[in-house]
Specification:
With 399 residues, this protein is α/β, with parallel strands linked by helices. The chain contains 14 helices and 19 strands. It has a domain of 225 residues: FAD/NAD(P)-binding domain (3-Layer(bba) Sandwich), CATH 3.50.50. Helix 1 runs parallel beside helix 5 and helix 1 packs parallel to helix 10. The longest helix has 30 residues. The chain binds flavin-adenine dinucleotide. The site of flavin-adenine dinucleotide has 34 residues, from helix 1, strand 3, strand 12, helix 9 and helix 10.
């Protein structure tokens, strides 16, 4: 069976590895000419690292990443600690969820995953432009490349997925009405920041700041400063637009000095629109099926986009084992049924988190305090998930 994966992002690479674990080979077609996205970071939670451990990557990742000491919620203005939960402290997170929480440079993650998949499996400079369905598979058309036949094509091509267009007839990602300034700053330059080795949410009016340490010694801090608006996104073709430092500061006027320092040290000059995939009526059509952001791009407030892409990959790999034209429809429907509810629930919960993080209404603070104190219990269902045990039919690959 010829399996084509479109997109060598986190979902696509995880799928190639999960398939190999089950004795299946695939070719990954990637539009970019190299793999690394410089200047970005990712937080991997236990539901993702559990799978990466099974795929044999965890030791390499641990050498390049750091576990946050605590999860801390702070008042954006005063910097007061509103709630705190130990993570690497007391080994609390791993004891609870059975796998670590890691902050890592995205380029490092892709390097480790890409090296494990192997250059011979990844066809770079292959931009998919069209899918032609035939009775027994698909013909994939690329810019300036020969067409390629596949029995199955997996759309791991992200939030602006071409494969999703084919599957759904053109369902577009939608702008969430919120946007973000991002940056990575050496920890040594953040003198105003308390607890730089923790993962922290600073909460305020119409905005919040999330940051966590990345790299082997936590030598850098990755931040993600979210603001409401603009009401409509100014670009039709890009989700990144130029911005000024003054605009970024304006979103956090009168906040704690640590916030201004982060924005300044990163010399913020861009703004990212946050886009989500609207609920899709179907995730598959004939031999084409979707994973990751192509199926369910979500607001990043639970840090679950990449982690749920890894979950998708592991479950879909199980469905592709012994796939035939006769059982294909049933397998893809089963995959979709297993993944749809969970990813929708996380998508909705990320919207709720946005509202909770941006609320400072009078009288709401006690309620918020109670909510923040219960966060580990409330979101244990996200981190405790084990993709290999959700379907009795899936034969778990031995660890
Ligand atoms: C600012 C920000 C911070 C985030 N932080 C976190 C976090 O901490 N934790 C977390 O879990 N998630 C996070 N996410 C979400 C996460 O980045 C995505 O959900 C995740 O990368 C999705 O993986 P994917 O494989 O589906 O898509 P992507 O990683 O977007 O990969 C898609 C790939 O497909 C390729 N491609 C696209 N179109 C084509 C085509 N036509 N032909 C060939 N190749 C194509 C692209 O070049 C790309 O390599 C964050 C997202 C943002 C925007």
């Amino acid at each position: 069976m010829k399996i084509a994966i479109i997109g060598a992002g986190i979902g696509g690479l995880a799928l190639a590895l999960a398939l190999r674990e089950r004795g299946l080979e695939a070719t990954v077609f990637e539009q970019a000419s190299r793999l690394t996205e410089i200047g970005a970071a990712i937080a991997l939670s236990a539901n993702g690292t559990r799978e990466l451990r099974r795929l044999g990557l965890l030791d390499d990742l641990l050498a390049l990443a750091i576990e946050p000491t605590e999860l801390i919620y702070r008042d954006g203005m005063t910097g007061d600690r509103l709630a705190a939960h130990p993570m690497s402290l007391e080994h609390a997170y791993q004891d609870r969820f059975g796998a670590p929480y890691l902050g890592i440079h995205r380029a490092d993650l892709q390097k480790v995953m890409g090296a494990a998949v192997g250059v011979e499996t990844i066809a770079l400079d292959h931009r998919l432009t069209r899918i032609e369905e035939s009775a027994d598979g698909v013909m994939l058309h690329f810019t300036d490349r020969d067409p390629v036949f596949a029995d199955v094509v997996v759309g791991a091509d992200g939030v602006r997925s071409m494969v999703r267009d084919h599957v759904t007839g053109g369902r577009q990602a939608v702008y969430s009405g919120t946007s973000a300034y991002r940056g990575i700053v050496p920890t040594s330059r953040l003198s105003a920041l308390p607890d730089p080795q923790a993962i922290q949410f600073w909460i305020g009016e119409n905005a919040h700041m999330l940051h966590y340490a990345i790299g082997p010694e936590g030598g850098d801090v990755n931040f993600f400063a979210v603001v409401e608006g603009p009401t409509t996104w100014p670009s039709e073709t890009s989700w990144v637009v130029p911005a000024t430092l003054a605009e970024a500061h304006a979103g956090f006027a009168r906040w704690h000095p640590a916030i201004a320092q982060m924005l300044e040290e990163a010399a913020v000059d861009k703004r990212w629109g946050l886009f989500v995939t609207p609920p899709l009526r179907q995730w598959h059509k004939g031999p084409a099926v979707l994973i990751g952001d192509a199926a369910h791009a979500m607001l990043p407030h639970h840090g679950q986009g990449a982690n749920t892409s890894i979950e998708d990959a592991c479950i879909l790999a199980g469905m592709l084992e012994d796939l035939t034209p006769l059982n294909r429809e049933e397998r893809f429907a089963r995959y979709e049924a297993l993944r749809r509810l969970r990813t929708r629930k996380i998508q909705r919960s990320a919207w709720d988190a946005n509202a909770a993080l941006h609320t400072v209404a009078a009288g709401a603070s006690k309620r918020r305090q109670a909510t923040l104190a219960r966060f580990p219990e409330r979101f244990a269902w996200i981190h405790g998930y084990d993709a290999r045990t959700v379907d009795g039919r899936l034969d778990p690959v031995p660890e």
